[in-house]
Write a structure and sequence with these properties.
Helix content is 4%, strand content 40%. By secondary structure, it is mostly beta strands.
Length: 309
């Protein structure tokens, strides 16, 4: 993992705390779910991309079961394809330095090399300007690709055969030095797949477990105000204590996500404004806690570091 991610963890125990907003999409449910956590997914129903459980020659299951977004869940990709889906994100805290603004997820590809391929583009201004994140052009020095698995390539290779799921994560905070992105601005991520006129009967491209970290620096007092969930001790080894604002007579749940955007636990909360969660079974790292009501409305969020002694 990149050092810039480590700096976000270390910031938790210093005089500054990163007010980290996490948003994740695992493509479960009926398509409405994909608007959870501050994202809006735009998929053309007449296009190539479909959300569902893959049932193809090589693409036989999602990374996070049961669903992924695939260039057709059942059939090989067609010739002369040029299809995209768009992920909208409201930069509610803006993009800022020196902490992390990153986007990532999982992908799997099976295509004819070079001539049939995917792209990932980013728009800082709701679609007026598009930046190819893979072929970075003039912004090459401001876009940094990282990965958690040293066997993966830093920059995703969206052509050929990936031989399984690969992880990608791109860091975008340095773009704010030339393309200011303020709180409330809408940024877009566009995922596309193109093919030539030769029919190769291949599976195409698939994405799953997409996530966004939006982490401008704020002071300790600001971090502890508003709807921020209080978590202590932090870092923690075996148990964390949650202090939250419980709605009277409301059924509250807490969901726990790891740094890859994968949900690893869900628990019911009491109505006592505090609760404890066991975390000894989880690996060391940074985790996000999301508290929601019975209708799925997010009430509070927070982050903590699991760290063994």
């Amino acid at each position: 993992m990149k050092l810039i991610f480590l700096s976000s963890i270390l910031a938790l125990s210093s005089n500054w705390i990163s007010a980290q907003n996490y948003y994740g999409i695992s493509f479960e449910g009926n398509g409405v779910h994909e608007s959870d956590y501050g994202h809006e997914l735009v998929v053309d129903p007449a296009g190539l991309w479909q959300i569902g459980s893959p049932d193809k020659t090589i693409f036989t299951e999602a990374f996070t079961l049961p669903n992924a977004i695939v260039t057709d869940t059942a059939n090989p990709y067609p010739t002369n394809a040029n299809s995209s889906f768009i992920l909208k994100h409201v930069a509610d805290l803006g993009f800022d330095m020196p902490f992390e603004v990153s986007f990532g997820g999982k992908y799997r590809v099976d295509s004819d090399s070079l001539t049939d391929y995917g792209t990932i583009e980013f728009s800082p201004d709701n679609g007026t300007t598009w930046i190819d994140l893979i072929d970075q052009g003039q912004y090459d020095s401001l876009i940094n690709w990282g990965y958690a698995n040293p066997d993966d390539n830093a920059i995703p290779v969206l052509t050929g055969n990936s031989n399984g799921w690969k992880e990608f994560q791109v860091y975008l905070e340095q773009l704010a030095t030339v393309l200011p992105i303020n709180g409330g601005d809408t940024v877009l991520f566009k995922f596309s797949f193109m093919s030539d006129a030769i029919d190769n009967a291949r599976d195409g491209l698939m994405f799953d477990s997409l996530f966004m970290w939006d982490t401008p620096p704020v002071g300790l007092d600001e971090y502890n105000s508003g709807n921020q969930l209080m978590i202590y001790p932090n870092p923690a080894t075996s148990t964390i204590k949650l202090n939250y604002s419980a709605n009277e007579n409301a059924e509250m749940t807490v969901k726990l996500y790891n740094h890859l955007g994968v949900k690893i636990g869900e628990f019911a909360l009491s109505e006592n404004d505090s609760d404890s969660l066991p975390i000894a079974q989880y690996a060391n790292g940074l985790y996000t806690v999301v508290i929601s009501d019975s209708e799925g409305n997010i009430q509070q969020t927070g982050i903590f570091v699991k760290q063994d002694n």
